[in-house]
Protein 1
Amino acid sequence: MPADQVTPNGYPGVLADLAARFGDARGAVIGTSGPFRVSQPEEDAFAALIGDWDPMHNDPAWRMAAGDGPIVLGFHVLARVEQGLRSCPVIAGLARTVHARTVGLDNVRFPAPFPVGALASAEISISGVSFNEAGLALTTKHRYCVDGASRPVMVAQLLTVVTARDGDDGGRQPGPFPLASSDTAPVLIRELPEGVPVPTSSRHDSAFYDALPRRIGQWLGTTPWTCISDREAHAFALLTGDDGTNGHGDLPSRAHPFLSRGVPPLQLLALRAYFSPLVGLPVLTDESMMAFNYGVDRARWHGAVHTGTRLRDHVQLLGVQARRPGDHLVTTRHILEAEGSDHGALVADCKTLYRTSS
């Protein structure tokens, strides 16, 4: 694809070259990662960061019916996609001249469990290349597989906007935060209803989930405030293969080279596991139920968030689908509010599979 077919006036140099190279490679694999393993201590630390300390992820003595041991959290796998893209040879070779920012996710699914300690690898291919008012918009497909497994443990589409670093931007200055497309207008927080949480229950059995469809379309309330510290953001970055020097959201770095004042975008999304129980939707395994991260239909980030900023979630129930006996697929919308901002920093439609005991 010739660069002049995708490059508007004002985007010379490195972005035009990158557009041409990725355009020519559309549909092809542009990078691989691995092999890698997620150890039990790494999984424990990640689960603690997002409030998902669950036996199926953290107790080595726990066994599923199929005889498997603990499995890696879906969000732990998903959080690796940013670093996977940055490690692709073309992007890595331009690290000093371009900056890649995550702005969205589409069609994230976890088809098979990822056992803790299993050997895995990732394959990244280019799906789309275009320019918008913010910069070069890339859509990449990420496929993670465990050695010897017939199905991948994760497939996801990542939306990224690439901008030139200072000195090679053609005099153009992108907005305060780039959007991937025009259909991702941010949500105004003041327009969200208060909502009513799902009543607390001591037993999350089939009867509990059979009653949920009555709430479809309703808002389940707003969670209490919380925040992500510098140390938590740094730990998250290290656990997902990033040393934190990328400056998430282009926020100014502190003196320590490994610390950035921006919360990693995928860490904001992973907070869903912490927020969901606060509106009555459990995530932790109990005697009646196991909860699995089924995927993310769509997620869009609308701004960078400083560490230390107070955050809360506005949750809406979008759907409840009965699957095989005892299985309920629940879809929720999460609008993350960062204190001081008029619009949501993140809007994500997530799916959770609840499996109840007979």
Note: Confidence is low (pLDDT under 50) at residues 1-9, 167-182, 247-259.
Protein 2
Amino acid sequence: MNNLICPNCGSPCSLEDVACPHCGQLLYVPELNALAAQAMAMELSNQSAAARLWQRALTLVPPNSPQAGMLRQRIQSLRPARSASGNWFAPSPSTATAIQRTLASLLLSLVCYSGLFWYWGGFTATDALLFGFGFVCLILVHEMGHVLAIRHYGMRASPPIFIPFVGAVINIPPPRDALEESVVGIGGPVLGTVGALLCFQLFRTFHSPLLLQLSFYGFAINLFNMLPVPPLDGGRITAAVTPWFWIPGLAAIVLLLVNHLINVIGLVILVFALPRIWQTLRHRSRAGDYYNVGAKATAVMGISYVLLCLILGGMMYYSYTLLPPGF
């Protein structure tokens, strides 16, 4: 037999094809699901073997597809670091070591943020330390929203690593489709919004200016994260709506850069955003059914995205009106 039959449209496909050239449907979905299940089960005990399984899965998806890019990131995250002599370090860090790195990066961020608020924000040393602690806690709450969403799909995520003046990052398994990516993406801003709302409610109870400022920053940071451009959470969420939302998100980042409202962070976002936007919009037909999540899921994620943006924008404005003049 010299060809395959596409299970979606019934068109004949070459044995070399990994996706139907007519409808874009992936041809080896059962094999991919089996490899993904084996690799995820193997990651806890043998990351080298898991990386080899993900490498096999990589050969079954189009090379320029979003799935291929995410698989490459997953494979790279499982590979041990190379030493200066060219040898591979043997075992990957244990869970205890990963948690130690999380705590160390958290303390480093606490020192950096507290110093920033003390030096530039006019806080006393004590208030700066308290504010920095609350600020780091809000970032942690946001990241735990992603972790909970990942656990919802039965997957594992690495403990967050805090990066001063950037936020925090967690190692997320590659999503199986845009809906899964969208749900994982919205988990952070949802829980982050809850954290900011809690700070605002505590302000109304105890009338602490620090809590009011903390809630304002919480709303502002989560709202910025909702910009519809990858790798921000808004870009992940709108992947289930339409990747074309990434174009106005990209324009917003450029506008913020031009007006000097963001600087290095904006450039980093552009570096990560442009390749995926270009590859996705140019080779959308090769992405198989990654973005075909159904009309109901598209509507639910689109409405959820808009509502969350409205809540964050409204609360950010309201908390700002309560701040003292000159803030």
Note: Residues 81-93 have pLDDT under 50 and may be disordered.
Protein 3
Amino acid sequence: MRNGVNSVLKWAIAAGCAVLLCAASPRAAAQGCAMCYQTAAASAATGRDALRHGIWILLLPAVSLFLGIFVIIYRRRNPRA
């Protein structure tokens, strides 16, 4: 039972650190080139919505691949031989 508690505690600490890191650097997510910013600012509401959807469409496969590889590495970290 003690091992399960340690595992949950480690996950809770990691999640807390991730939340604090994201909250501490709000400007880090807003980096971009000046041309992209000007184009997005000058577009109509439908253009901005299309840009937001495009960002999600490009982000989801990359995050899925990263999480998939992370899960495979996590499961194989301690082989049961």
Note: Residues 32-81 form one domain.
